[in-house]
Specification:
- This protein is α+β, with helices and mostly antiparallel strands and about 900 residues long.
- It folds into 3 domains: about 5-255 and about 310-495, no CATH class; about 650-755; about 770-925, Immunoglobulin-like, CATH 2.60.40.770.
- Strand 12 (about 775) and strand 13 (about 785) form a beta hairpin.
- The chain is globular and about 100 Å long.
Length: about 900
Amino acid sequence: MIASADEARGTPSFWEGSTGLFVSLGVLAALVACFLLGGLGSMGMWEPWEASEVMVASEYWERDAWDAGVVEKNPEAPGYNWAVPTREGIPAATSLLKIWFVGAMLPRAGEDISQVMGALERGARLPIALALALLAFGVFFWVRRRFDTLSALLSSSALLTMPVIYFGAHNVSTQLLGVVTTSGALLLFMQLVRAHGSEGAASKRWIYGAGFGVMLAASFLDQRLPGLLTVMMVIVAAGVAQIVYAPESETWAPPKRDLFASLTIALSPLLWMGYLGVSGGKAALEAPHVMQLLLVAFFSCALVAGALAMRRTNVGRALFSPQGLVGLAIGAVVIGAVMFAYADVNPTLLKHGEVYGKIPVLTFALEQEVQSGGLAGKHQHFDLWLRQIGFATFPWIALIPSGLAYLSLPGAERPEDDADGPGLERRMLLVWAMVSLGVIAVSSAYGHYFFTGYVPLAIGVGVMLGDVSFWKKVARHKPILLQLLGLVGAAFILTLGKDLERYPHRFVELYAQLPAKLTLPEGFSWGKTYKPMKYVMLLAIIVGSFGLLSWSVALLGWLKAFPARFKAWRAKEAPLFDAVDADSGETPMSARARARAEWLDGEGLLARVVSLIEGAAWRPVVWTSVFVVFGALSLWSYLPKATFNFSQRHIFETYTASADAEGGEKLYRYLSPQKKGSLYLRDVPVVASSSEFLKKLDEPSRFFAVIPRERLAQVNYDSRKARGRKNVHVLDARSAGLILLSNRLEEGEKDQNFIAEAILPPSEATPAEVEYEVKYKDDKGQLVHPTFDGKLELVGYSFGNKPKGAQRGKGVPVFGWGEEIELVMYFRVLERVPSNQKLFVHIDTKGNRLHGDHYPLGGDFQTNYWLPGDIIKDTHKIPVENYTRQGQYAIGMGFYKGNDRMKVAPKSAHRGDRVMLGELMVRSL
């Protein structure tokens, strides 16, 4: 009698029946609602990335038919039809499948944006979210059929709580449809392979074959060649791997002629390249599109050669079966239809939105970009993809290497499946992950950089966590493997976690197409929950991997016996430490591991308690729960804060909530040219000049304007200079891109003008909030404040975070490791500074320096917009890292631009073009 999968893997009885299935489906539905469907309409569209996709989709569904006569007059004229998305009439490099799905859900064109907010975002994102939900349920049922219910739930949970999935569901610009289509094609093909080796499954084989063809075609419609190549290369590589691992007695081992033919086909691109080199020399190799054609020829020949070599394997027989050929035919028909449709209407080469060249048909397959306006060439490095995969799967990346290693172990599938080829699914999952990584590495040179192999990563983690028998065996008898798992996991949590803590923008780079610079404000962070969650995850990994309790009991037993052992050693009766057993060859470490396992399997009360705590049942639940909580905090806390900096929706919402539109209180743009690509503010009129803007500020009616955040200092300077030092009022300053201002505030509205907060009223006296006044003797012996180029006067400084060890203005403040030095400096503006100066702050002790160089207010308040007479308050935070050298530090500062520094006066204040402010202490508090 063959044991069930649940029994073989030691799954708790709860998961074996229908109750476990219903509970699993309920948990999965809750995760889908929380991570995929929740908040789709509440977050604004990211600009320009999501906005561009939405506008292309909207134009696709609203545009008029293309006039074929235009091409007859000008063959290079850009045209379009059902196969060619466009942006303002120009063919656009984007996913055709996404355009169909997203465009069908968008509101009608021409509707007021204020009336469709919420519905617009929800409609654009819902197709991708639903596709991901279907993928999650598909993974659940596939894993449940191959392994068990618990593993299926854990695999789907891991997939849904990967940042790339739940962030991608809330961002139209990601290429997650490619993950769905390629994953669907491969899962269906694996089902076809199994059904092909089973009796009485003819009808299922036709369903799997047709489904495989549909998903193969969808992979091309979404990802073009990378999607198509990913699916076919995984299939061929899995078949070739089956040849490598097949016993010599297998009847389907390919004969030598197949291998020879395969080698000949694989070498044909090299022969072609040699022919070009001989016939045309260097000019032939540098001709337009030759290298692209060689690349396509290389992959095509490699696929044909591999398919020929593995045609007698289980994978090959399924691929070349009638059902498999039908699937290939469906994909070929769709691919051919799209390519010829594109060539008929637009026989030109599309690349980066520019139209040039005259190659029909093949150009669409060769150089149709997936990522419009994507990656810069300097970023195309293999380590970037590895880093992005780590961030995209954090914190599951801590378990992914171990999950992939687990898939390489024998006996991970249902015992009854071994008859069809041991380890087939596990081998295909491993090949799937590796091939996907190779595809993005190669195709990155052409702008394709999205990894599509997240499903095998999630399945590897899920089936590893769900194998209770494996955990019991490893925890008791092979603890070194469990400790290695914990070591790898802790290393990933610490390294990637620290990177995300220092550079939180790295977490959203992938969803913003890896731009050279992201408009996130200085000091942007995850929030207060990030660091505690990081250490909770780290603690969960360590406690669940290292068996601290049982090893502590073993250590206590060894220490208890140590006096007697020491006495015997002194008497030369026995060695102090254990040695290798001469009879069995057992090492001291393996002997201690065996003794620990025997103790855990014993009947003692303490052993039972420790065994329960360190048992296998809780580990997947705790790890998964902690990771799910981290994902929920990231989705509902971090993502909205990031969205404020990439979307204009909140600006428009604040305006509509504050203005009386019917009363004529309009919204304008100022110092921000009107852009056709803007989704929310595209119809907003522009204020053309500063005089017109200042005039509107003094009008009795209320006035609203959107300006770039970086121009607020200029606008506020003009207002204070022309209007008697009156600041403009800021209603919404949450974004690092655009802010909303007005000429007056209504009751209940809060002024968010951060520039105004840094300006103190003109005064000859030292402001009361200055804790440490800075003065030096001049040539006449009088104490004066130091000046810089005679234009800025340093009045004094304070510490905003109230350090220890000093009362107000007295004593030396003390800062501990891990704290921040919040230094607040006060400057009186004597004359206008003609250029934007940077502050350098050096906090020095012998052999160490804490750097605090910065532009005033994080670059928001340029010195050339400091109005003479004002007192400016600049605040900057300098972290004190752990293990910073302890001792007394001297604080010095100055101004510089490039290699030029502002000159310090009087001479007594001069310390190398800097002023010494005072001192502080660093201690390991």
